[in-house]
Design a protein that fits this description.
Number of domains: 3
Number of helices: 14
Strand content: 5-15%
Order of helices and strands: HHHHHHHHHEEEEHHEHHEEH
Number of strands: 7
Distance between the termini: 27 Å
Radius of gyration: 20 Å
Length: 300
């Protein structure tokens, strides 16, 4: 969810770093006009509603979208009122959402998913690989030298002066006391210039920070259905393998590939038995994710 929000910021930047130029040109040309309201919700500078980045969104896109669909009306109202302080025109545009009207909430989650499919899904394996490399690097720094080593190499705008973590350069001067709460560190592909935080200090505390610019390389992923992998295991199974990169239920697989749920379930079972995907049951749904073996195949 953070990558979705921050990519919306990047899409609107007047002077974005050169490594994003090709992505902005491609996505800007493909963006459905119906998704324009998302740009108003996520202006490139200033406040963006905290409800766009629910903490459960760290578990995956579908979990984040579900959290948005279950956001309290009071949260929509307060976050949109805060946005209106900087973007006065949004008051009337998002009145139904501020009132928590079900149709407006479902429309928002649908637009976010549509935007993700257009702007991020074709590049998701690259984004995951770059962010994963940053996570491993900083995890090793923590294990090797503790908090001093971790925060010392996180970003130039992060300073650790035990027991205070300082973030100079923020437009808002404030103190956040963890009071026993943890701090979630989120390396981000689309976060640029400065680390960022949620505005509401009562929400779970996160610090989103840019990854090393040298890790940023964006080009549309090669279509699995046209790859040697497709010739090896078949186009449908190759497409399912690619789709499970960020987690998919059987129903979602069927919808994305235009096949029946029974067919999607059959192919997923074959891939699971081959050790390429992992399947777990969550309530009434069955969630499929890539096994490391499958990820190696997709990345070839």
């Amino acid at each position: 969810m953070w990558e979705t929000l921050l990519s919306l910021h990047m899409l609107q930047e007047r002077q974005s770093p050169p490594m994003y130029a090709g992505w902005r040109a491609r996505v800007g040309g493909q963006l459905d006009p119906s998704l324009r309201p998302l740009l108003a919700l996520a202006p490139p500078k200033g406040y963006s509603p905290d409800f766009l980045t629910p903490d459960i969104g760290a578990e995956g896109l579908q979990e984040g979208l579900d959290a948005i669909r279950h956001t309290r009306t009071a949260t929509f109202r307060s976050d949109l009122a805060e946005l209106a302080r900087y973007q006065p025109h949004v008051d009337n545009r998002f009145k139904a959402l501020a009132n928590g009207e079900k149709a407006a909430v479902l429309d928002l989650s649908g637009k976010i998913e549509h935007y993700f499919d257009t702007a991020l899904r074709p590049y998701w394996m690259q984004i995951r690989a770059a962010v994963g490399a940053a996570r491993v690097s900083h995890g090793k720094a923590l294990a090797r030298g503790g908090l001093e080593a971790l925060f010392g190499g996180l970003h130039p705008n992060v300073r650790w002066r035990r027991p205070v973590l300082e973030l100079p350069g923020f437009t808002v001067d404030r103190d956040i006391r963890l009071a026993g709460r943890g701090l979630r560190l989120i390396p981000s592909f689309f976060c640029r210039r400065h680390p960022t935080l949620l505005r509401d200090p009562e929400l779970p505390t996160v610090l989103v920070y840019p990854i090393d610019p040298d890790q940023v390389r964006l080009a549309p992923a090669r279509r699995t259905t046209d790859s040697p992998l497709a010739a090896l295991i078949g186009r449908t199974r190759a497409a399912i393998l690619e789709a499970t990169a960020d987690g998919c239920t059987t129903t979602e697989l069927a919808r994305r590939l235009g096949i029946s749920p029974a067919t999607a379930s059959h192919h997923a079972s074959v891939l699971r038995d081959a050790g390429l995907i992992t399947t777990i049951r969550i309530g009434t749904s069955v969630l499929h994710t890539l096994h490391p073996r499958g990820e190696l195949l997709v990345n070839q």
